[in-house]
User: Fold these one by one.
Assistant:
Number 1:
Amino acid sequence: MNTDADTLSSLAVQSDDLHVQPAPDVSTMLWACCGAAAVIAVVCIVCAVVLSRPRKARTPTQGAHAEGSDKRTWLARIDAVVHDHDTHRITADEAYSELAALARAFASARSGRPLATRTLRDLEHEPRTGNTDNWDALRMTIAALYPPEFADDDHPQAHSASVAQAAGWVADLVERWR
C-alpha cells in the first residue's frame, strides 16, 4: 500500500537532474512584432488622412451639353401646358402652377442649382452668380406668375393674365437664358 509520503516523493523532482538553460532568444520575435505594429500604424494613419478629407462634390453638367438644355424641349413642355388648359384637361390655376414649376425646373437644369421648391422670397435671396440677367428674369417670371396663381375671387384684376400670356413669360425666360 502506498502512503502519502511515497506519492509525494515520486512527484518530487530530483535536484541532481536540474540544469540551467540559457534564456530563450526572443529578440527576433520582438523585432518582428515591432515591425508589424509600425506597418499597422502607418496604414491606420494613411486611412485616417484619406478618409477624413472632404469629398469633392460632383459638379453637374451645365451649358449646352447638359441634360435638359435643349430649348425646343422646354418650349414644347410649355406648349403642352397651354394645350392641356385649352382642352380643359387642367384648370387655369393648375396651368399657372405647372408653368411656375417649369420655369424653376428649367433654371435648375441650366444653373445646376436645386430651385424646384424655391419660393419667390427664396429666389430673391438666392446668390446671383454667373449671368445676373438670368436670375433677374427668373425672379420676374415667378413674380408675374404668382398673382394669377394665388389670386382669389376678390381680386379679379389678378386674373387678367391669361394662361397663354403666362406661358409666353416662361417661354421668354427660356429663350433669353444665357
Number 2:
Amino acid sequence: MTINTILFDAGDVLYSKPRRDAEVARFLVERGLPAPARKDPVERGMRLAAHAGKIGVPEFFGWLLAHYGVTDPDQMTEGLRLLREQQGDVQFFDGVADTLHALKQRGFQLGIVTNTFNSRDEKTRWFRSVGIHDIWDSYADSRELQIVKPEPEIYLAALTPLGVSPDNAAFVGHAQYELDGAKALGMTTILFNPDVDATRADFSVERFADLLALPVLRQPAQAASPSRGGRQTGQYGVARVSER
C-alpha cells in the first residue's frame, strides 16, 4: 500500500527539552530530595491524565512536586516556576526543518499527533522559530481532543480530515506504546530517538534527515516492503537506515 501522509509525534521527535530532567533533578537534590526515577508508572499515568485534560496543568505540576517529596511552601513555589520554565525550553533536532520541507516538496501530507500540555498556539510559536509553522496539513492535540496516544481516535483525528486511510500513512515516534498504537491501526511505523524500551517498528532512523532515504518515503506514489533498506529485527521488524 502506498504512503501519502506522514504523522509525527512532536516532543522527542521534532524537538526535545534537553535541560528539563537535569534541572528538575538538580532542584530536588539541592534540597535534600532524591532525583526522580526515570520510569515511574505512577507519574506516567498522571502525566497522561493531564495530557488528556482530566486534570489541569497547575494541578499536575503541584501533584508532581508533592510526588517528588516537596512539602515546603516556598520550595513548592520555586518548583512550580521551574516546571513552567522548563516546559517551554525546547530544542529542535538537527535537520528537522530541512527534512520536513523536503518531504513536503515530494508531495507528502504532514501531520502532528501529540500528547501535550502545551497549547497549539504555543507550539506554533516554537515551529515558527524554525520555519515549520505553515507546513502542517493536520494537527491532533490530546489537550484539545481529550484523547491520548495510543488510543486509535487520536491518530484518526489527524487522518480523517485528510481523507486518508491508516494503511496510506506512516507514523514517526519515539515511544513503543505510541508506535504500537499506530501499528494496530495499520500504519507504517518509523522509530526515531527511541526510548530505552522502544525496539519494534517497521523502520528506524538514527538521524531525522535519514527519513529522506527510506524507500517508502522517496515518493508518495511509491510503495515498498519494510524489509527493504536494512536489517530487520524485533517483533514486526526494524529496517535501519545507517548514518552515512
Number 3:
Amino acid sequence: MHRFVRPAPTSARSPQHSAFRRQDPALVRHHDRAASRDQHRRMLMQELTLTQLQKSFVNASRREAGLIKPPFDPDTFDWESHDFVGWADAKIPQRSYVFVPVDGEVRGVILRAVPPSRSHRSAVCAWCEDVIAVQGIRMFTAKRAGDAGRRGNTVGTLVHELFDCSAHARREPTGWEGRDDPEAFVAKRVEKLRANAEGFVRRVMDGK
C-alpha cells in the first residue's frame, strides 16, 4: 500500500517530498511473481494416500468414505498432471468422486449422476468450458456439507463424466481460439478450469 506523505510547504518539491512514495518496479514484479507461484502451489494436486483421500471428503459419512477404491495406484499416480482427480464408482455407477485443491488442501466430494433425459443433447462442461468436447457431459449433484446436506440440499453441475477436463483444457487451440497467443490461451483455460472446480467445491462446503 502506498504511504501518504504530507506535501511540502514550498511550491518546488523535491522527488523525496512527492505526494506519494513510489514503489520500486523491480520489487513489485518480484512480489507479483512470488504471489503467482504461491497461488499455483495452492492449486496443484498433491500426492495423496488412500487414507488421505478418504479423510478429505466434505460431504460423506465415514462409511461412504471408507468404501472408495481408486482405479489407480495412489503411490504411482501422476498427481501433478491433473488439476483435479475424479472417477466413477465401479460398483455403483451413478456415484462418482472428485478431489479438488482448495486453498492448498485437497477436498473430496461425492457426486451422484442424474439420469440422462431421452432428449439428451450435447452441452458445454461447466468446469473446463471446452466448446469442442461437448459430448459425454453429465449432470451431477452433490449433497452439501453440514446441516444443509442433512436437510437434503444439493448443488448441481455439468461436467465431463470421465472427469478428463485437464486434458480438454490443454488441447491445442483452434486457429480462431489461439490466433494471438496459443500458449496464453491454454494457460487462461487451465486457470479457469481450476477456478470453476474450486468454486463448485466451495459451494458444496457452504453448509448453511
